[in-house]
Amino acid sequence: xxxxYPQVPVEVRAPVVRxxxxxxxxxxxxxxxxxxxEARRLVLPLFVREGLSEPVEIASMPxxxxxxxxxxxxxxxxxxxxxxxGVMLFGVPEHKDAAGSGALDPDGVLNxxxxxxxxxxGDALTVMSDLCLDEFTDHGHCGLLTADGRVDNxxxxxxxxxxxxxxxxxxxxMVGPSGMMDGQVAVVREALDTxxxxxxxxxxxxxxxxxxxxxxxxxxxxxxLEGDRRTYQQDPANAVEGVREALLDVEQGADLVMVKPxxxxxxxxxxVRDAVSVPVAAYNVSGEYAMVEAAARQGWIEREPAILETxxxxxxxxxxxxxxxxxxxxxxxxxxG
Length: 337
Ligand code: PBG
Description:
Elements: H1 26-32, E1 42-49, E2 56-57, E3 65-67, H2 69-81, E4 86-92, H3 109-121, E5 126-131, H4 153-170, E6 174-177, H5 184-194, E7 201-208, H6 215-220, H7 240-251, E8 256-260, H8 266-275, E9 280-284, H9 286-297, H10 303-317, E10 321-324, H11 327-336
Parallel strand pairs: 1-3, 1-4, 1-10, 4-5, 5-6, 6-7, 7-8, 8-9, 9-10
Antiparallel strand pairs: 2-3
Helix pairs in contact: 2-3, 4-5, 7-8
């Protein structure tokens, strides 16, 4: 089709202000970039499964595995070599029960993994642990259940306190209470302090939403959860409540607060960043990972730029620290420039 330009020519007055000038060369773009992405700000979540002799790939998270005890150490060593900020450890026990007792067992999969990883890379990066019962319970909930099947907040708090001590005794640097029980940060802080683990810090999963984007994680930790977590995780409709949760956790002694998921909740990341004076983390969760990987496999999205753009966007929204399954890969991409 031939475009018909208007008969009367448009008179263009050359713009005086030209934002494009600052975009004209890579050096200039780099000089004025407002946000940076650095390996030291990235935390790699790692899964270790009891009884494995070889790592097993998680089908819904291509490229992510459940580690054996040995392969976990290799992954942690690589994370340290790449200059990552830390690793977040998740344990998958062979046997689960209603009380999640594997979580408290000093010889349980997560407690052993903490000691292993701290021994391997403890000087080079921060070793963190997910402090929650859902990986250990046969019903898949983050706490102990009442007779009528609800999650019992205060009994669960006692279990979290003991679990925190078990992780600290195993050598962890930072625990991440992620069960969304009311008062969990205060109880964990108290349990640690009264056992003389005053130097173990707390990354509170403060604004954690009842999200469909945790889907692939259920496979990663072999969770049998039926139903949902809406009586304890937050309603995706609420942002002000996310700020409230973060402020409560800071008051209770959280050293860092976290928003989770990240991509759909960048407004919450920003609001929390503006409201607290501790570092803010954001968790780029399993479903966010799976979406990009699936689209890339179809050839519908360019994988590496999409990964870097995702992580940069989370940083730009205000996250000081980003937990992401792409942490090691992103660090390699950043090294290549
Ligand atoms: C709870 C926990 C979950 C995730 C991290 N810690 C699951 C949940 O709360 O439902 C999800 C992480 C992800 O989806 O990548 N132990």
